[in-house]
Amino acid sequence: MQTKTIIITGASSGLGQVLAYKLAQDNNLILAARNQEILEKMKKDLNSHDNILVVKTDIAQNKDVANLIKQSVARFKKVDLVFHCAGINHKKPFYELKESEWREIFATNTNSVFYLTQNLHKYCKKLEFVYVSSISAQIPTKLYSAYSAAKIASDNYLKAINKEWKALKITIFHPYRLKTNFGSHYEEKYKSPSKHKVDPDLYAEMMIAKIDGDRFKTLFYTLKTWLVRFGQIAGVKTN
Ligand SMILES: NC(=O)c1ccc[n+]([C@@H]2O[C@H](COP(=O)([O-])OP(=O)(O)OC[C@H]3O[C@@H](n4cnc5c(N)ncnc54)[C@H](OP(=O)(O)O)[C@@H]3O)[C@@H](O)[C@H]2O)c1
């Protein structure tokens, strides 16, 4: 990957954090999440040549997103690429979902995409926007009603605005289960066993290969991801 200025949302954990560690060496990074303490610690770990900016951001708040973009442009003059990894779910039957949970799911997974693209459009003629959606957007999943709806809404919003904003390049990923903190707040009975999850490191390699336009590596890591998953389903130890 050529040196780029990259915003990573959800950088304090899971996939976003793994991407940050992989991309920090050769790029300018803006790390965004609510947990500033973790982001500052990551910056300390990574900051060999002062190429990392931490911006505490609640991605569900337009004013925070506006501040994130403003600070990013002020510091690095431009933004080339966004990895929008921040996301949340509440896994439960639809009739138990509280209105506040529905709102949080949409605010975090969907409104955030609107805020990011609107604010970025003010500063960037050209932009690459990577959205971490979910398999639940493609295959609506029981106990994931609001989440499935929020992710597909974002997918379609991005595809629609791409018809207006031609210099926007969008890439949407639809992960299945990743071994991250996602869902750690679910009720015990709704938690998926971690042996059925893929290492975010492997998934991040696949994402980077795809963004780099490296077809061979993309295919390699995609196949590896699925092999690991089938192996897990079949009970074979593959990672
Ligand atoms: N893990 C899976 O099995 C799975 C499967 C399919 C799709 N996905 C998607 O993959 C993406 C990455 O998830 P992950 O697995 O890496 O989960 P994770 O470990 O729980 O990380 C989620 C990240 O989102 C951030 N976040 C949540 N709410 C936020 C808010 N209001 N403002 C700013 N940041 C917020 C969190 O940071 P703070 O708490 O510090 O704000 C954290 O950094 C998500 O979009 C998720 O929907 C995950």
> Compute the gyration radius: what is it?
17 Å
Low-confidence stretches are: none
Kindly report the average pLDDT value: 93
Measure the end-to-end span.
Answer: 26 Å
Number of domains: 1
Largest beta-sheet characterization: 6 strands, parallel
CATH superfamily: NAD(P)-binding Rossmann-like Domain
CATH topology: Rossmann fold
Question: How many alpha or pi helices?
Answer: 8
CATH class: Alpha Beta
Helix/strand-derived category reads alpha/beta
Shape: globular
State the share of residues found in helices, binned by percent.
40-55%
Can you give me a brief rundown of this structure?
By secondary structure, the chain is of the alpha/beta class. Helices cover 49% and strands 13% of the residues. The mean pLDDT is 93.
Question: What can you tell me about this protein's structure?
Answer:
The protein has one domain (5-190): NAD(P)-binding Rossmann-like Domain (Rossmann fold), CATH 3.40.50.720. The chain is 49% helix and 13% strand. It has eight helices and six strands; from the N terminus they run βαβαβαβαβααβαα. Strands 3-2-1-4-5-6 form a six-stranded parallel β-sheet, with helices on both faces. The protein is globular. It starts with a strand and ends in a 5-residue tail after the last helix. The chain binds NADP nicotinamide-adenine-dinucleotide phosphate (NAP).
